[in-house]
Amino acid sequence: MNVLQVIPQLETGGAERTTIEVAEALVRDGHSALVASEGGAMVRELEAAGGEPVTLPMATKNPLTAWANSGALKRLVRDREIDLIHARSRAPAWSALHAARATGIPFVTTYHGTYNAKTPLKRFYNSVMARGDRVIANSEFIRDHIVSEHGLEAETITVIPRGVDVDRFTMTEEVIARGAALRQAWGIPGERFVAMLPARLTRWKGQLVAVDALGRLKQEGAEIPFLVMVGGDQGRSGYREEIDARIRHHRLEHDVMLTGHCADMPAAFAVADIALNPSIEPEAFGRTAAEASAAGLPVIVADHGGAKEVVVHGETGWRTLPGDAAALAKTLQAARMLDTASRLAMGAAGRARIMARFTVAALQESTLRVYRELLE
Question: Reading across the β-sheet that carries 2-6, which strands appear in turn?
């Protein structure tokens, strides 16, 4: 197979990571994997996986440029004998749809987010992601969203969850040693129970909810966990300042730490006793919750979106009311009071669930199966 994936850019993100994982699987099985994008930090990873980057202004929303992209993709399909196009975002999907229809090859889409629409025009713009010969949803939550937004029958949508590199998040002696060094570098007190919130600093990820939950526990006189927020602000300095102000308001300066970006997330998880994903808006999948589970941590997630499919309440972690600091505080207290053996057993159950349902290998195999079915 000669497969062309299209995506706006190859910067950090879930859709970008999946693009490279599928390219890797294609090359490993003897196929060609081309990726059209505007480039980015992950181009080197694509090349290392054996994929071929094609640089085009795929992030554009300018209709004239998008039309030019369509022509460029048509030429690429013919020159490189492309068998199938797979679109992973709306802007390039329109160009890819026109190119696929003009050249008579199959068109696949993966619906990576909710793409909320407040107007009929925006809903029409989003609808390109439901126009594939095969439409892939990255969670059951997203499948149901496609059904309600675009009227597709549920059985016509293929659910292929995001994958986790389980081996990378295995708590080996080496990873644990890196975690111990990281804990020392961050200056986390050795005796503290650590709750980790791994997410970029953006409001909908729920960092303020977590801080308010600790504030409630402090006000009640409870012994509170040490909260470590791992993630960069990506230029959102105003939100970072708001988090800092909320920490001071609750007098939590010695109980909360913002580390910024961390490139070694397995080591970061080795620092923690539990992980949090208290998003105030539903996530399409819940990658950080899945990665924390793969690392053997119990996870507390907001009870909505794709994260509900990752965490089984009471078995692999807990689910709490979205945006409810009081509910999160109560759950944090329950997690801290759990004995070590029970907490480790809960983490082990979470890892087993990830290995059974949410691996990179499963994502790769399922995606290539879709390609083969269409081409056969």
Answer: 52-55, 32-37, 2-6, 84-87, 107-111, 134-137, 157-159
Distances (CA, A) of 93 to 7, 17, 36, 37, 240: 8, 18, 11, 11, 34
| The pLDDT of residue 55 is above 90 | yes
Q: What is the pLDDT of residues 351-362, one digit of tens each?
A: 999 999 999 999
Q: Confirm if 150 and 128 have CB atoms less than 8 A apart.
A: no
Residue 11: strand, helix, or coil: coil
Q: H or E segment at 137?
A: strand 134-137
Sheet containing strand 274-277, edge to edge, reads 256-260, 226-230, 194-198, 274-277, 299-302, 317-320
Two tokens at 1?
């197979």
For 170-206, b/e burial (b = at least 16 CB within 10 A) is ebeeebeebbeebbeeeebeeebbbbbbbbbbeeebb
What is the tens place of the pLDDT at every residue in 228-257? Answer: 999 988 777 899 999 999 999 999 999 999
Return the sign of the alpha-carbon dihedral for residues 277, 278, 279, 285.
positive
According to the model, what pLDDT value does residue 287 have?
Answer: 86
- DSSP lists the bridge partners of residue 274 as 195
CA separation, residue 121 to residues 117, 124, 126, 181 (Å) = 8, 5, 9, 52
User: What residues contact residue 253 under an 8 Å CB cut-off, 6+ apart?
Assistant: 247
Whether the predicted pLDDT of 102 surpasses 80? yes
* CB-based contact 198:288 (threshold 8 Å): yes
First to last CA, the chain: 11
- Give Cα 347 to chain centroid, integer Å: 20
Alpha helix positions (H), the chain? 14-28, 43-48, 63-79, 90-103, 120-126, 140-150, 173-186, 207-219, 237-249, 265-271, 287-294, 307-310, 325-337, 340-357, 360-375
DSSP class of residue 313 equals B
Q: What is the pTM of this model?
A: 0.85
| Rounded Cα distance, 294 and 164, in Å | 8
317: left (phi over 0), alpha (psi -120 to 50) or beta: left
Closest CA to 194 of 210, 205, 206, 209: 210
Q: How many CA atoms lie within 13 A of 290 on its CB side?
A: 27
